[in-house]
Specification:
Number of helices: 3
InterPro entries: Pectin_lyas_fold, Pectin_lyase_fold/virulence
Radius of gyration: 31 Å
Low-confidence stretches: 1-15, 310-322
Largest sheet: 14 strands, parallel
Helix content: under 10%
Structural class: mainly beta
Strand content: 35-45%
Protein name: Pectate lyase superfamily protein domain-containing protein
Distance between the termini: 111 Å
Shape: elongated
Number of domains: 3
């Protein structure tokens, strides 16, 4: 092998090059602090380890090396840098690609070319990483030393059937001035039987400074392209003028435990964290108020030292976030207070829309085989009396009878465009809720199509909402309100009213239908 030949040349003059459990890149022609390309030397050292069953490539000293070509750290090889070593990346390419059971540890990886917009450390799902594995990325500073703010520091990527990355460890990392610090991405795959996923990876003690985007979990909350169950603990993020988002998440069951500093430095709108409509049941603990978080998903929990997003649920709850039972629902009898209608799409084969606004959940409106090309579109028009301070809006469906595609849109003014509040292209649940709030809500538009079961049906049991300024409409509040149904009073019972002077009178009715008033002493 060529690597063996080069090594033998150096062994003759350098005793340190005699291989034992590790090899040094200087033995393969790398010259520190010279400005010369060391890519070939590093790759040859890695290849030599593979061929000779040696585990570690070492780079030592207070030294700087330049790389201008991609380096593949092959299976069962550990690239180990002293803390005082810097590898400078000069060009636009994925600098280090890790195969299964490969590791990179220590030192500084520094981008010095302003044209760089690739990845510093890249892991492909084609490696099919799972338990057991020895894959580790740790104790590394990853720095973009150019003013471009381009590229990604760490990128996990699954793009085809049966790509997966699981149980990978990333810890004690410092990242500065990239477009994206950490990006986990699964591409959509049409066939759920041949999925890809990025699940169950651990990111611990990560410091991020000056990146445009901090952590991105990009995929779906379930198969066929799942990005779920990844944990990010002890994350510290320093915001700068160029920072746009610290966390963007589209998966499920991911946890984020982080401190986020100086959001006032951001030149963009200070919406720091965003959970997409494809996200659900993620957990966030941070030092931020909810006003800096956009949550378009379902059942995500956002906590801080000040507040938390989901309230304790009572036994009578509708089992939805932000609702404490039927009494909070402002859309009870909505068909009598507002304009509610289906504006397009296939007509229901059973039930009617009014059933979605009563307290009997088994009454519903039912559809069958609704194509994406002709979806059911339902509009609720509150223009005559806009809803004040909307807290949440949602609906739930019959058990196993849910549409596949769901979109909820808001009209926030009489003339404004529709704003997407929730967009779920691959629904698998029985409930959908939008946590997007509105100061004034004039209309809601719901678009539904497809089906989640072979029977091709979906059934809307309930459409509900809550306001932070309006009472619910299931019962008459003690503070008063408007009734939309009849009141039936048992025989001999009546209504007691009090005069201005404090005298009480009881109003009853006799067999002739006459009202009788009786003074109560």
């Amino acid at each position: 092998m060529r690597s063996e030949f080069i090594l033998s040349e150096y062994i003759s003059s350098q005793e340190d090059c005699v291989p034992e459990s590790s090899v040094h890149i200087n033995c393969f022609g790398a010259v520190p602090n010279s400005g010369n390309d060391s890519s070939l030397a590093i790759q040859q050292a890695i290849d030599y380890c593979v061929a000779n069953r040696i585990s570690t490539v070492r780079i030592t000293g207070v030294n700087t090396y330049k790389i201008v070509k991609p380096i593949v750290i092959k299976s069962n090889v550990r690239l180990e840098l002293d803390p005082t070593v810097t590898l400078q990346i000069d060009g636009d390419f994925n600098a280090f690609e890790l195969q299964n059971n490969a590791s990179i540890v220590g030192g500084t990886l520094q981008v010095i070319n302003p044209l760089f917009q690739s990845v510093v450390i890249y892991v492909s799902g084609s490696q099919q990483i799972e338990v057991p594995n020895q894959s580790v990325i740790s104790n590394i500073n990853i720095v973009n030393a150019t003013p471009s703010y381009k590229g990604k520091a760490i990128h996990f990527y699954c793009q085809k059937a049966w790509d997966f990355i699981s149980f990978f460890q990333v810890k004690f990392i410092q990242i500065k001035n990239f477009q994206t610090a950490i990006h986990l991405k699964t591409e959509y795959i049409n066939d759920i039987n041949t999925p890809c996923w990025i699940n169950a990876n651990v990111f611990q003690s990560i410091f991020i400074d000056g990146c445009v985007y901090g952590i991105e979990v990009d995929g779906n909350s379930g198969l066929p392209n799942e990005s779920s169950g990844n944990t990010f603990h002890d994350i510290q993020v320093q915001c700068r003028q160029q920072t746009k988002k610290v966390i963007r998440c589209s998966g499920a069951y991911n946890t984020f435990d982080c401190m986020i500093w100086d959001t006032y430095r951001m030149s963009s709108e200070q919406i720091v964290i965003e959970f997409s409509s494809n996200s659900h049941r993620n957990y966030l603990f941070s030092n931020l108020l909810s006003t800096t978080i956009v949550d378009k998903g379902q059942y995500n929990v956002c906590k801080s030292t000040y507040e938390e997003s989901l309230r304790i649920q009572l036994p009578i709850t509708l089992n939805k976030p932000h609702l404490i039972g039927n009494q909070d629902d402002i859309l009870v009898n909505a068909q009598q207070k507002y304009i509610v209608k289906q504006v397009s799409g296939k007509v229901p084969y059973g039930g009617n829309l009014a059933n979605c606004f009563n307290l009997i959940d088994e009454q519903s409106v039912n559809y069958i085989d609704v194509p994406d090309s002709n979806p059911v579109v339902i509009e609720l028009d509150f223009t005559k009396k806009p809803i004040q301070m909307l807290n949440c809006f949602g609906m739930y469906f019959g058990w196993g009878e849910s549409p596949k595609k769901i979109k909820i849109e808001y009209a926030l003014s009489t003339t404004g465009n529709w704003v997407i509040a929730s967009d779920v292209p691959l629904n698998v649940g029985d409930t959908i809720i939008s946590n997007m709030k509105a100061n004034q809500l004039y209309k809601v538009r719901i678009t539904l199509s497809g089906y989640s079961q072979d029977h091709k049906r979906f059934r809307i049991n309930r459409i509900f909402a809550r306001s932070s300024m309006e009472n619910g409409n299931a019962w008459l509040a003690t503070t008063g309100g408007r009734m939309f149904g009849d009141i039936e009073i048992e025989a001999s019972k009546g209504i007691i009213m009090k005069t201005a002077s404090g005298v009480k009178w009881k109003v009853t009715i006799n067999e002739a239908g006459q009202l009788i008033t009786t003074k109560i002493t």
